[in-house]
Amino acid sequence: MTDETAILDRYGVMGHPVSHSKSPVIHTLFAEQTDQHLKYELLDVPRDKLDTAVRQFQRSGGRGLNITVPHKARVVRLVDELSEEASIAGAVNTLVIEPERIVGHNTDGVGLVRDLISNWDYSVGGKRILVLGAGGATQGILGPLLELSPEELVIANRNVDKAKALADHFGTLGEVRALKFGELRDGDTYDLIINATSAGLQGDTPPFPRNAIDRRSTACYDLAYALRTTPFIAWAQQMDAARTRSGWGMLIEQAAESFRLWRGVMPDTGPVLKQLPVT
Ligand code: ATR
Description:
Elements: E1 9-15, H1 23-34, E2 38-44, H2 50-59, E3 64-67, E4 81-82, H3 84-89, E5 94-98, E6 101-105, H4 108-119, E7 128-132, H5 136-147, E8 152-157, H6 160-170, E9 176-180, E10 192-195, E11 219-222, H7 231-238, E12 243-245, H8 248-263, H9 269-275
Parallel strand pairs: 1-2, 1-3, 4-6, 7-8, 7-10, 8-9, 10-11, 11-12
Antiparallel strand pairs: 3-5, 5-6
Helix pairs in contact: 1-8, 4-5, 4-8
The protein binds 2'-monophosphoadenosine-5'-diphosphate.
Residues 69, 133-137, 157-159, 162, 181, 197-199, 204, 206 line the site of 2'-monophosphoadenosine-5'-diphosphate (ATR).
């Protein structure tokens, strides 16, 4: 059978909106590099159509999905089994699909940690970490970050009750405190500040906590990525943060882990990092 006539294994990303997603490009590069024959589609699915769309994809022989905004928490109810990471996070970004069974995974946290450690040479152990935001993105990264034994992890959010709920939930894994956004005191600086709010996506610049930055040492990481400098990174650079990085590397690393779960082969992220505007 030639490549043209072979039936390609189907994968895709489901979200809403999803047209901006770089996942098809990334997975196509991984497939070429590892000589895997597959097709990866963009699937724009509104909130109320998620259940039907996932079942339909399964019935038509689809092998795996990435799940993105706004479906990561909702899709948990649809799966037959959750990985440990997805269960701790309460959110799923990857589905491994078989005809009779769907397993939900969460590769976001692993993606962040690999980008920090392997691509950015940043070591989290013993560091003081401030996470801005308490939504689904924060849920996905707290478990893997706490596993690296930071000295302290503080979640700051506009709605402090959401931060407190996450601090309670993840408190069994390490020392986690919750603060209201903007409640940070003078001199309370952090080694690593991670922006996990969706404010930048809406073009908003919330009052990021300038007191939290120590010019000589604070590293600032934005889970968001964009072709231009993100508002959080622009702010961090203005504040003279020691180092800054946006979420391109995490995007590529979480995709690599999804690809490994689907195909049993770990792609080399290095060449793909070089092809995207990682800053
Ligand atoms: P995601 O799954 O991307 O995390 P989410 O669950 O809607 O999306 O969470 C978005 C996060 O960004 C929340 O922490 C939200 O703060 P609230 O919980 O107070 O709503 C935060 N966020 C969004 N826009 C913001 C803004 N303009 N200023 C501050 N925080 C903002």
